[in-house]
Design goal:
Elements lengths: L1 E2 L2 E2 L10 H20 L5 H42 L1 H17 L7 H11 L6 H21 L3 H15 L4 H11 L1 H19 L24 H28 L2 H11 L8 E4 L4 E4 L7 H4 L5 E7 L3 E3 L4 E6 L5 E6 L4 E5 L12 E3 L6 E2 L4 E5 L1 H6 L6 E5 L7 E4 L5 E2 L4 E6 L1
Antiparallel strand pairs: 1-2, 3-16, 4-5, 4-15, 5-13, 6-12, 7-8, 7-11, 8-9, 9-13, 10-12, 14-16
Helix pairs in contact: 1-2, 2-4, 3-5, 3-8, 5-6, 5-7, 5-8, 5-9, 6-7, 7-8, 8-9
Length: 423
C-alpha cells in the first residue's frame, strides 16, 4: 500500500495504545512548530490543518509501525515479567502506592498498565497493587475512627475509611493516615503482606477501572483463581492492617482519653468562637463548587476555597506548622486556640512534585499571623493544566457547632475575615 508514493506497512491497531501515545507525543511537537511559523491572522485555519496532515502521514508511515514494534517487544517484556518477576512488581506497588500517590509518580505507571492490558488481555502492573493499598488505607482510617477519642478525627476517619474502601483514598490518606503517621505505616505493612500473596499467586485483572471493592469484578476472567486470590489478598491486607493499626493506637492514642477526662472535671472549659482570616488573595469559591469530590463533599471537614489572584500564602493566625507536604502544595496549621487548618493549593498539584512552589517555613515551626508561608507561580501552574482552586479546610470541624463562611465579598484580600467557627 502506498500514499503519495510512500510505502506503508500494514499494521493492525486494534486494542493498541503505544502507537497512539507516540502519535500524540509527535503531534504536540509538530503543532508547536507550526504555531511558530504561521502568522497569527491565519493560525485558526492553518495550524490544525497542517498539524493533522503532517501527523497523519508520519503516523501511517513511521510512528504507527514503530509503535507496533514497540508494543510487540513490550508484550514480550511483560510476558517475561509475568513468568519471572510479576510477584515483585505487585508487592512493590502495593507497599509503596501511597508514596507514589503523594509524589504523583503513580501516573507514570498508567501507560504501562494500559499497554499491558491491550497487548496481553490482562494486567498486573498497577491494578492488584493499587486495590490492595487502597483497601489498607481505608481499613487503617476506620480503625483510627474506632479507637480515637478525638472528635476532630473520628468523623473524618470514618468517612475517609469508607471512601478509601471504595477506591478514593485522598480523604483517608491526607486527612487521617498521613497526619497521624502510624496508620500510614500500618497500612503499608498490611498492603505489603497482601501484595506479597497476590504477587506470588500471579493475580491479574482483565479490565481497567477504580481500585476499590467495586473493582473486584474486574478480576473475573478465564482464570477464576484471579478472583479468589484477590479476595484472599484483600482479606489478608485488611486483617494485618487492622491489627497493626490497633496495636500502634495503644501507644499513640493513649493520651487523648486523659485530656477528655480533664475537660469533664473543668465544667467551665468551653471552645470559644474563633475568627479565621484569609491567607490567600483572590475570589471566594464555595466548597461545594470545588472540582474535587474529596473536598466538595466535606469529607475532610468544612471550609471554603479561594481562586487565587496572587501566588502567596500567609499565616491566618498565630500558631504552629503541623504538616508541610514534601511537594509544598499543601500545609497544615494549628492555631493557639486549637483550630486545625489545611490549605491545599490547587487540585492534583501533588503531581508537580514541588515544581513552581517555594516554602518559607518548616514543620514544627511557630508562625505569626500574616507571616509568609508559601509562594507559588500561579500562571505556570495554570499553563501546566491544573485547576488552581485552593481549599481551606477546618480539619477539626467536629469540635465546633458550626463553620460560617464569608459570602459577603466574592473578592477577598489578605487578612480579611474568612471563617467564623462557633464553639
Amino acid at each position: 500500500m502506498e500514499i503519495f508514493g510512500i510505502p506503508l506497512r500494514l499494521v493492525s491497531y486494534g486494542s493498541s495504545v503505544i502507537p497512539i501515545l507516540l502519535i500524540v507525543l509527535a503531534q504536540s511537537y509538530i503543532e508547536r512548530f507550526v504555531k511558530k511559523i504561521i502568522p497569527d491572522a491565519i493560525k485558526i485555519i492553518f495550524v490544525p490543518m497542517i498539524t493533522i496532515f503532517v501527523t497523519a502521514i508520519l503516523a501511517l508511515t513511521v510512528i504507527g509501525p514503530l509503535g507496533s514494534f514497540v508494543g510487540d517487544y513490550m508484550a514480550m517484556g511483560f510476558e517475561f515479567l509475568g513468568s519471572y518477576g510479576a510477584w515483585l512488581i505487585i508487592f512493590l506497588v502495593a507497599t509503596l502506592w501511597p508514596i507514589l500517590v503523594m509524589f504523583g509518580i503513580h501516573h507514570s505507571i498508567v501507560p504501562l498498565s494500559l499497554a499491558q492490558i491491550t497487548t496481553l488481555g490482562y494486567e498486573n502492573i498497577l491494578g492488584p497493587g493499587a486495590i490492595i493499598s487502597n483497601i489498607s488505607q481505608g481499613v487503617a482510617a476506620l480503625v483510627v475512627g474506632w479507637r480515637t477519642k478525638d472528635t476532630s478525627f473520628k468523623q473524618i476517619a470514618n468517612t475517609g475509611g469508607i471512601t478509601g474502601l471504595m477506591g478514593i483514598t485522598e480523604p483517608a490518606l491526607y486527612g487521617v493516615n498521613l497526619p497521624k503517621k502510624y496508620p500510614l505505616i500500618a497500612a503499608m505493612i498490611g498492603s505489603a503482606c497482601g501484595g506479597l500473596y497476590a504477587g506470588l499467586m500471579g493475580v491479574s485483572r482483565y479490565a481497567t477501572g477504580a481500585s476499590g471493592i467495586p473493582a473486584i469484578p474486574l478480576y473475573i476472567g478465564e482464570n477464576i483463581w484471579n478472583l479468589y486470590n484477590i479476595l484472599i489478598a484483600t482479606v489478608i491486607t485488611a486483617i494485618v492492617t487492622a491489627v497493626v493499626t490497633y496495636v500502634l493506637s495503644l501507644k499513640y492514642e493513649k493520651d487523648i482519653p486523659k485530656q477528655k477526662e480533664n475537660s469533664k472535671d473543668d465544667k467551665t472549659l468551653k471552645i470559644k468562637d474563633t475568627v479565621i482570616t484569609n491567607p490567600i488573595k483572590g475570589q471566594i469559591v464555595s466548597l461545594k463548587d470545588v472540582k474535587d469530590n474529596a473536598f466538595a463533599s466535606e469529607a475532610m471537614g468544612k471550609g471554603i476555597a479561594i481562586e487565587p489572584s496572587e501566588g502567596k500564602v500567609i499565616a491566618p493566625f498565630n500558631g504552629e506548622i503541623v504538616s508541610l507536604f514534601p511537594t509544598k502544595h499543601a500545609i497544615g496549621l494549628l492555631s493557639d486556640d486549637g483550630v486545625e487548618i489545611l490549605i491545599h493549593i490547587g487540585l492534583n498539584t501533588v503531581e508537580l512534585n514541588g515544581k513552581y512552589f517555594e516554602a518559607y517555613v518548616e514543620q514544627g515551626q511557630r508562625v505569626s499571623q500574616g507571616q509568609t508561608l508559601l509562594t507559588f507561580d500561579l500562571e505556570k501552574i495554570k499553563q501546566a493544566g491544573y485547576v488552581t482552586q485552593t481549599p481551606i479546610i477546618v480539619t477539626n470541624t467536629y469540635n465546633y457547632s458550626d463553620v460560617i463562611t464569608n459570602n459577603s465579598n466574592r473578592n477577598i484580600d489578605f487578612n480579611n475575615e474568612l471563617l467564623i467557627l462557633k464553639g
